[in-house]
Write a structure and sequence with these properties.
The complex is a heterodimer. In chain A, strand 1 and strand 2 form a beta hairpin. In chain A, helix 5 crosses helix 6. Chain A has a domain of 124 residues: Rossmann fold (3-Layer(aba) Sandwich). Chain A starts with a strand and ends in an 18-residue tail after the last helix. By secondary structure, chain A is an alpha/beta fold. Chain A contains ten helices and ten strands. In chain B, the strands form two sheets. Chain B has a two-stranded antiparallel ribbon. Chain B has a two-stranded antiparallel ribbon with strand order 3-4. Chain B is mainly alpha-helical. Chain B contains 29 helices and four strands. In chain B, strand 1 and strand 2 form a beta hairpin. Chain B folds into two domains: 293 residues, no CATH class; 281 residues, ABC transporter involved in vitamin B12 uptake, BtuC. Classes of the chains: A alpha/beta, B mainly alpha. At the A-B interface, helix 2, strand 6, helix 3 and helix 6 of A face helix 21, helix 22 and helix 29 of B.
């Protein structure tokens, strides 16, 4: 059973179709890539999945349950977490407090949600519980402990007490990741997480993502760093002008003629659909 | 039949036409600048009074006076407003734009009171062609009514032509979204902004001049509050669509006059007639609430708050020391006889109103929501204390205020912050007019309406000194409570919600529930302040103590002073409340500065365009060496350029998209005029 499924999702802004009849699936424990030029509808798709944007038509399913009409915070409570392309950190809080707010919130709404093996695996990654602990061990973790552990896990412990709006973009993105992880998501949506990161940071980040997927999390990754996407993802979707141009394994995508013509070709066809260089995100 | 014609066709359409003119001005400025002009009615008021001055007081011919007001004064006001204020507010937070335009409203009302003092003469503005009428369907229809109708039709046609037929109009609709983007297409955003404000002020002036002769009272406040009716009408079109705004105006005008038409007295006697009169007076508020309930939920907008504010977070220890010092000073002031009894009386009001300001620290400072009804909620506390006695009343007042606050906020919570501010202002007006005002629905509240009710103090605290210190202690306890909230998990949550509502909702936070909690708590604190105020004043407590714009210490200036002196920490309320009550006292001591003192809150609000976080935090920041603010434009992310045609002319598609998403709309996209 897929974790997330979009069925013929369409979003219209007046005469402009931002997302056109998109079908998309994310399996648990895998990283799925979503690539395409600026304005192809990637962020809109994320907003649809997380409930910040309503669909014009089509359905969004989580574990085969229809969540199309569910409000954003209800979806988060069902295990959908995300980061943002344009940063949405809580600027006047410190990096640690950003994560703490999320941990406290989860603690409030998640009281009656029984921890699963995936939760244990996630907390074990962060060093909070022993790997393979019984789910009951999770109950002993306080929001403050969880925040501290996640801050270290994503690698921002050094700036934990710095206001988030004073952090460079790369680190602020990691704070957003830590914040999303504090809700213990089963599905994680990452919107251009590597932009603003240098090579070393990107490498560390890639390993982090692999470990999260290894812990059973389903990850949907929007990223302009195409080599990174091709390396990490098991399935890649190519979005162009709102519709799916191609789906397949990284190898299939890299040899797909339509994709090469429209997008991956060494020479951009026109400046309008030029591929942003990694790190040059808006 | 002739009654039907008179009330529903003539009077109904006449009211509708004036609301339509006023509301369309509001929509034009809001859609082009993103700033909701609370002072829209006040500008119409200034125009109507200028017209009175020229045509009645100085005897100019009506047409000349009208031309001067509509074609010179109003555009000039608009041009100056745009140059001096509105352009600086590009990208400012919603709170800042609200406070600045409310500051303008208060300043204009005070200015009118200085130029045209009330109470000395009764001013009357005659209708156009006063006395002339023609007979239609057996009813005498005044020329004035016909002129009003003609004006509304003229405005509708004129706006259609300007916005859809001219390049300037197309540019006005383009600039709504993004000034710079419009600039790429050869649009001069400054010119467009000037044009929009000039047009908006002309429409405000026209509405003011048309409505002044048919209002029961020709006073600055009555005309200024026209903005509420205009807002209610514009809400039908979500402050964006002009045709729906006209529909809203029609609904409002007809609703008011329908209640005139039905002979309510014959139907159910005096009680029903009273009720009908109240309904009529609150027609805009009723329409507003109905529309808010019917409107779909606002999309949680992305775009974190990017105005980098200094957020003071004093520790519990610091606040405890400050509160102890505050109580000690209160004791000395009340006991020592250093200040006159009269001044102590005013300072005591300041302590009670300080509690009301603390309610704003929680709501606005911590949670980023704006309420203009806090003094109204304080009035609820006072009413309950008056009715139920000191102890039960104080507890009851706090609870009732919390409940009412939650009910008022409920329909507006799903909308953006601006709507909450507007709704609370409308509600404050409803309270003032109908619950404990001139038309008091409940006759038992009449003594309160005329300022004739009294409140007892709790046993053992009857003395002035004892009660003064008690109030200071109450203020201190609330300040400590807020500090605990601030430094705890709830405070963090509020701060996060203020910074990025969208991110909060993706973390599983219900924005509506959180806003409701904080709004109810804040109304409760205001209710406590009102109860204390009533007990401190003791006698002649009433509506005038809790009014939006009237009385010695009105609600809108209170909000302004609270925000300007620093809404983000409890210290702002400490200083703000004293400053607020001392301004009229100073005016009393030195009559030469009385006018200046009255103008001060309004001007301070306007000055906030420079300093969005208030004076106290600014000073604190300067001391800490981190006082400057780094402002990045807030607001929605710009449209992605490949779809907006950077460097190429607008296509039909762009216009349709602008129309639908952002701009003024005339209903369907295909009604858009094509640019050549």
């Amino acid at each position: 059973m897929p974790l997330l499924e979009l069925r013929e999702v369409t979003v219209r802004f007046g005469g402009h179709v931002a997302v056109d009849q998109v079908d998309l699936t994310v399996e648990p424990g895998t990283i799925t890539g979503l690539i395409g030029p600026n304005g192809a509808g990637k962020t809109t798709a994320f907003n649809v999945i997380t409930g910040l944007q309503s669909t014009t038509s089509g359905r969004v399913l989580l574990d085969d349950h229809d969540i199309t009409r569910l409000r954003a915070h209800k979806r988060a409570q069902r295990g959908v977490g995300r980061t943002f392309q344009r940063l949405e950190v809580f600027g006047s809080l410190t990096a640690r407090e950003n994560v703490l707010v999320a941990a406290e919130l989860r603690h409030r709404w998640g009281r009656r949600i029984a921890p699963t093996e995936a939760t244990v695996a996630l907390l074990a990654l962060a060093g909070l519980v022993e790997p393979g602990s019984p789910p009951e061990a999770v109950a002993a973790v306080s929001p403050a402990q969880e925040a501290d552990a996640l801050v270290s896990f994503v690698g921002v412990a050094g700036v934990a007490d710095t206001r988030a709006d004073e952090l460079p973009t790369g680190q602020a993105r990691l704070v957003e990741l830590g914040r999303a992880l504090a809700t213990r998501p089963r599905l994680l949506l990452l919107d251009e997480p590597a932009s603003g990161q240098d090579e070393g940071e990107t490498e560390a980040f890639a390993q982090l993502l692999s470990r999260l997927a290894g812990a059973g999390m389903g990850i949907l990754l929007v990223e302009h760093d195409v080599p990174l996407v091709m390396r990490l993802c098991s399935t890649v979707y190519v979005l162009d002008f709102g519709s799916i141009l191609a789906v397949g394994t990284p190898n299939e995508i890299q040899s797909n003629q339509a994709v090469l013509d429209a997008y991956l070709g060494a020479e951009p066809v026109t400046s309008d659909i030029a591929l942003d260089s990694a790190g040059g995100g808006s | 039949m002739s009654d039907l014609f008179r009330f529903l066709v003539i009077f109904g359409l006449q009211s509708a036409a004036i609301y339509a003119v006023a509301a369309s001005g509001l929509v034009v400025t809001y859609t082009t600048s993103g700033i909701f002009n609370f002072a829209h009615g006040a500008i119409g008021m200034i125009a109507a009074f200028t017209y009175w001055e020229l045509s009645q007081n100085r005897g100019w011919p009506a047409l000349v006076a009208l031309a001067v007001v509509l074609l010179i004064e109003a555009p000039l006001i608009g041009w100056i407003l745009d140059r001096v204020l509105m352009r600086r507010l590009t990208g400012a937070s919603t709170i800042t734009t609200i406070v600045v335009t409310i500051g303008l409203l208060v300043a204009l009302v005070q200015l009118a009171a200085i130029i045209w003092p009330q109470g000395t003469t009764t001013r009357v503005l005659p209708e156009f062609f006063s006395g002339s009428s023609i007979k239609m369907v057996g009813v005498n229809v005044s020329y004035h009514s016909l002129i009003v109708l003609a004006c509304a039709i003229g405005v509708a046609v004129g706006l259609r032509v300007v916005l859809y037929g001219s390049r300037l109009g197309v540019a006005m609709r383009a600039v709504v979204d993004d000034r710079n983007l419009g600039g790429l297409n050869g649009v001069d955003p400054d010119r467009v902004s000037s044009a929009a404000w000039m047009l908006g002020c002309m429409l405000a002036a026209l509405a003011g001049v048309l409505i002044a002769p048919i209002l029961p009272q020709f006073t600055p406040v009555a005309l200024t509050l026209l903005v509420i009716s205009a807002y209610a009408a514009a809400m039908v079109g979500r402050l964006r669509s002009l045709p729906l705004t006209f529909v809203g105006a029609l609904l409002l005008g007809e609703f008011e006059n329908l209640l005139n038409f039905i002979d309510t007295k014959r139907l159910g006697g005096d009680a029903v007639a009273d009720l009908a009169r109240n309904l009529q007076a609150s027609a805009p508020v009723i329409l507003l609430f109905v529309v808010l309930i019917c409107l779909p939920e606002d999309r949680t907008s992305l775009g974190a708050n990017r105005v980098r504010n200094l957020i003071p977070r004093p520790s519990l220890r610091t606040v405890t020391i400050a509160v102890a010092a505050y109580v000690a000073v209160a004791f000395v002031v009340a006991q020592s006889g250093l200040v006159s009894d009269n001044t102590v009386r005013e300072l005591g009001k300041g302590v009670a109103l300080g509690v009301v300001m603390l309610s704003l620290v929680l709501l606005t400072g911590y949670a980023g929501q704006v309420s203009l009804a806090q003094l109204g909620f304080a009035g609820i506390g006072a009413v309950v204390v008056w009715k139920l006695g000191p102890v039960v009343g104080l507890v009851g007042g706090v609870l009732v205020a919390a409940g009412v606050g939650a009910l008022v906020a409920l329909p507006a919570l799903k909308m953006r912050g601006l709507y909450l501010a507007l709704t609370t202002m409308a509600f404050a007006l409803l309270l003032e007019k109908n619950v404990y005002g001139d038309n008091a629905v409940f006759s038992q509240l009449k003594p309160f309406a005329i300022g004739n009710s009294s409140a007892e103090r709790p046993p053992g605290l009857g003395g002035d000194t004892a009660f003064f210190v008690t109030m200071a202690v109450a203020f201190g306890l609330v300040a400590l409570l807020l500090t605990v909230i601030r430094n705890g998990s709830f405070g963090r949550r509020l701060q996060a919600m203020k910074d990025s509502p969208a991110a909060c909702s993706t973390l599983g936070l219900s924005l509506s529930a959180t806003k409701l909690q904080v709004f109810a708590l804040s109304a409760a604190i205001a209710g406590l302040g009102g109860g204390l105020f009533a007990m401190w004043k003791g006698s002649s407590v009433g509506r005038n103590d809790f009014s939006l714009l009237e009385g010695a210490l009105p609600g809108l200036p209170l909000v302004l002073v609270a925000v300007v002196l620093g809404i983000t920490s409890v210290f702002g309320a400490m200083f703000g409340s004293v400053a607020f009550v001392m301004m009229p006292v100073l005016g009393g001591w030195f009559s030469s500065v009385r006018s200046a003192m009255n103008l001060l809150p309004g001007l301070a609000g306007v000055g906030l365009a420079q300093n969005p976080d208030g004076v106290v935090s600014q000073v604190a920041g300067a001391v800490g060496g981190n006082g400057h603010e780094d402002t990045e434009p807030a607001g929605p992310p710009p449209l992605e350029p490949e779809h907006m045609g950077a460097g190429r002319p607008f296509t039909d598609d762009d216009l349709a998209r602008l129309d639908d998403e952002l701009g003024l709309s005339w209903g369907r996209c295909d009604a858009v005029a094509r640019t050549p």
